[in-house]
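Re-run with default settings, no changes from the original entry. Doing this only to confirm the output is reproducible before filing.
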Amino acid sequence: MSEFGQLVGKYLLIYPFLFIIGVLDFLVGLVARNKYDKYKEFPDKNSVLSSLTNNNDPYSPYRSTLSDGLFRIEDNEMNLYSEFLKAVDQFADMKTMGEREIVSIDDEVQPNGKVFKKYTMNGYKWTNYEAVRQRVDNFSNGLLHLGLKSNENIVLFCETRPEWIMSALSCFRISVPIVTLYATLGTDALAYGINQTDAKFVITSGEQLPKIQKILNKIPNVTNIIVVSDKFTQKNVNEFKINNSSKIKLFSFVEVEEIGKDSDILEYTAPKIDDLALIMYTRYV
């Protein structure tokens, strides 16, 4: 059979099914056409689609005006860490974080001459909720033992990765506001954010560590740096240790976990619903 004949045969075979689907779609449209009748008509471009939840408070959050009401949770004990614990209690053995190990990084030259990094990775390795909780608790205990106190700011200058969210949850647990600095910020902006928030602790990655090293003389209040590294960025960590002439102490993420795991739990302030959780520095164009 010719290629044209095969094409016609496939079309005649598939067409009846497409016809049936079209008919069903038409019937569903007839049944559900009154779905939005309670709104009388679809909102036009000048409609107000959101309003303050509390008209007497200009800082209250906005909600959709198409909603019949707003469900509010009045729980003064609620906080970001307690909500995480609820998920742990309900889904303790379920997968929650997946990470792929980088096998190799190669330069790939594009037709326009630009060089992109090509990452070759293994499959995902998953961690369940309970394992994450244990690491979060250990890491936060380790921070306390290194001298971090509740309500003191800590800088999180790191790419998106499991250690990022675990660091954040650890700080939420002990009422430590995190200061997030965008990974592509320049060194001057980086020093500015660290100094403005009076942070003594910085959590960063092996990839970003050289930026920190360039501004050591500009961040006199920093006493501890915690770094997340791998085999491709460990050389940056080694160079930092060799060239670091300041009094700043350098720890790996795992080392802080071990300190917290093997130590007694120190006192800290439990988070409250109105506590400051995050200060975000980003970049704009």
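The chain has a mean pLDDT of 85. The beta strands are 50-52, 62-64, 95-109, 115-128, 154-157, 178-181, 201-205, 224-228, 249-252, 278-281.
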